[in-house]
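A favour, since you know our structure tokens better than I do. Just paste the record in under my message, thanks.
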Amino acid sequence: MVSFTVRMTFPPEDREEIAETLRALTLASRAEPGCVTYIPHVVEGDPDTVLIYEQYRDSAAAEAHRQSAHFKKYAVGGLFQRMRQRTREDLVAVV
């Protein structure tokens, strides 16, 4: 299992557009065969910060996500163009 979070900040004037883009990206991502979980969040008290929690079956599924047409359209062509900052944290499950 591959799990990680992506945290992005956006300008306040882009909130509605970012929300629409996240909705479209979420629907398409959840339909991927290797996607286990894809949940975007807005940070409470900071509506311009988005945190996405993602889980994929394996590293090949995570890579397939990054290579998908919807990722290129909504993430690279949408979110990445508007974001001010982006960080990713890879996670290891405690079993």
In short: The longest helix spans residues 15-30. The mean pLDDT is 97. The chain has one domain: 2-91.
